[in-house]
Amino acid sequence: MGVRRDETQWPVARFIPFALTLLVLIAAAFYWPLQPWLTVIAVVAALLALLGAYDLLQPWHSILRNYPITGHFRWLFESIRPQVRQYLIEGDNERTPFSRSQRSLVYARAKSEGSERAFGTLLDVYGDGYEFIAHSTRPAPRAAPETFRITIGGDDCSQRYSASIFNISAMSFGSLSANAIRALNKGARIGGFAHDTGEGSISRYHQEHRGDLIWEIGSGYFGCRTADGQFDPERFAKKAAMGQVRMVELKLSQGAKPGHGGILPGAKVTAEIALTRGVPAGEDCLSPARHRAFATPIEMMQFIADLRRLSGGKPVGFKLCIGHPWEFMAIVKAMRETGIVPDFIVVDGAEGGTGASPLEFLNHIGVPAREGLLFAHNTLVGAGLRDRIRIGAAGKVVSAFDIASLIALGADWTNAGRGYMFALGCVQSLICNTNRCPTGVATQDALRQRALVVEDKAQRVANFHRNTMLALSDMIAAAGLDHPSEIKPHHLVRRVEGAEIRLFSQLHVFLEPGELIEGRRKRSFYSHAWDLARPDSFDLPTAQAN
Fold it and tell me: Domain range for residue 185?
């Protein structure tokens, strides 16, 4: 039985075809005076050598920079299949992390290519689950996408932040390469939107281009930890004081593997990553599944108040994938009891992405984005706190319609991860955890990440944001609206069966303000979970569980 070669033993194996071409060219040139028939071989080798040299130096295609000559097979195969613009209309339902139509939409917008097409939709408009936004007979003038911003920060916040409604989700330096972080942050600066650091702390690559940062603090407290992994207030305060840090986000869980914690394999923990995170180099970097700085909902609110004070009054919130409903409601009850209210909450959907996760966590743990968002929104409304807290949402957000559908269900803004990764040039090779990313996006191999040219990819990141906002502007204008914040559940429609469609307002339950605390609890699911929730504990009261 053959043994599969591990490319890590041959880190430059992908350059062998180019090297062989040079050797053939040299040999043919040397023996050509003796064997004139070698002229043809010399000419072919020379042409291939020039092609390989061009591939290594051109800034647009990461695959070609990492795979000179052989990378052209990818373009060859693409040339004999339907083109990008055809993919934009397929509406395929592949059970892959992103469908071909979604990936192609991102590529087109990142390159500022038009996504218009002829012959009408090829989507199954009569299929169950088809969704659309209703248009108005009196469309509104198209609003400037630059106005699609919201202010984040409550009464206890002295440094409020004006945020775009479409930002970069949490992706850490370590899981992503230095060049990927540079390009994302520069793209955010160009486009005027925010870049979430992920829980890997703030690296020097986040700081090079001065793009707005949302600093995510995870259970490992990377960048603000003591030697034994506890939270360090002094280190936190020093980093949080940076002008580039606009908000602080306490991570409870992430959508792709909620309740699991995280790991950065030792092979990817370089000396630089170790310095950035405050962990030993070359060893697996672990994020515990739970926090050690607090153990109850009330303690969590007190910790959030401490973070806001230590940061100098910047907006502080938390991110989670909704799990047990009574646990989130316990947090909300703790807000009411302590009077400490976070400035924002980010709801991460279970369909969110990661470099590596157990299959069961990917497929069967956590609440999807829409259901989690609606639950969080309803709970805050029912508890009388919604007008004091902004809500962000994430989970396979790619298109303007994705943004509109989340806003209709209660989001104030949205985040995207893989969409911006595709703008960087990710081809979804699905080997993020091996350090062998072919496009330099998810690797710490210096030779591989040189394939990602920061200037080019930063502009594509900015293009993807700008063109998606332009598409959203067109969409809401067609619906007769002036700003995305005006999108409500009655504006969106879903086909629930072949002969029946319903407005989102008819399809979903929406609580009334104060309903959970004023004795008007008619929705059994919400009222039952609210009765189970305790502000002093995340645990479920066994006596009431039935």
Answer: 145-507
CA distance 404 to 425: 25
Spell out the residues 6+ positions from residue 126 whose beta carbon is closer than 8 angstroms to its own: 495, 498
- Which of 462, 538, 546 is CA-nearest to residue 188? 462
As for how many domains the chain has, the answer is 3
Tokens of 414: 């949205």
Token pair recorded at residue 384: 């009388």
**394-418: b (≥16 Cβ within 10 Å) or e:** bbbbbbbbbbbbbbbbbbbbbbbbb
Say whether 292 sits in a helix, a strand or coil.
coil
Q: What is the pLDDT of residues 245-272, one digit of tens each?
A: 999 999 999 887 787 877 777 877 888 8
Do 296 and 430 fall into the same domain?
A: yes
One domain, residues 231 and 340: yes
Q: Return the minimum-mean-pLDDT range out of 41-45, 151-155, 218-222.
A: 41-45
| Buried-exposed string 337-349: b where 16+ CB fall within 10 A, e elsewhere | ebebbbbbbbbbb
Evaluate whether 298 touches 321 at the Cβ level (below 8 Å): no
168 bridge partner residues = 195, 416
Instruction: Please tell me the distance from the alpha carbon of residue 9 to that of residue 125, in angstroms, as a whole number.
Output: 51
Strand partners, 132: 493
Flag whether 232 is in a domain. Answer: yes
Q: Supply the pTM of this predicted model.
A: 0.88
Domain assignment present for residue 247? The answer is yes
Q: Are 352 and 170 in contact (CB under 8 A)?
A: no
